[in-house]
Amino acid sequence: MAWACSATSNEGLVQKLLQTSIITKERVVQAMTAVDRKDFCPRGPYEDSPKGIGYGVTISAPSVLYMKSQFRVRQLMV
């Protein structure tokens, strides 16, 4: 499931994560489609793995970010 969702574009990444049911909420799909990962990590942005973004900081793997986002959407809707 995770780590097997890499793609060559932001749209492809979102589609793979949808296909594997890592993301299921339309609001999460809209948000992740609107913000391109390449704006935050220039090397391998669509690989489903954590990436360094400078200053010793990393951005989590997309599958982890999307799962967290879905949980947060659920909390906000209650």
UniProtKB/TrEMBL annotation:
Q: Which InterPro entries match?
A: PCMT, SAM-dependent_MTases_sf
One record GO biological process: methylation
One Pfam family cited in the UniProt record for this chain: PCMT
Entry keyword set: Cytoplasm, Methyltransferase, S-adenosyl-L-methionine, Transferase
Organism of origin: Mucor ambiguus
- Name the protein family: Belongs to the methyltransferase superfamily. L-isoaspartyl/D-aspartyl protein methyltransferase family.
> Where does this one sit in the cell?
Cytoplasm
Q: What is this protein called?
A: protein-L-isoaspartate(D-aspartate) O-methyltransferase
Catalytic activity, EC: 2.1.1.77
What Gene Ontology cellular component terms go with this record? Answer: cytoplasm
Segments crossing the lipid bilayer:
none
Q: Which domain of life, per UniProt?
A: Eukaryota
Q: Name one GO molecular function term.
A: protein-L-isoaspartate (D-aspartate) O-methyltransferase activity
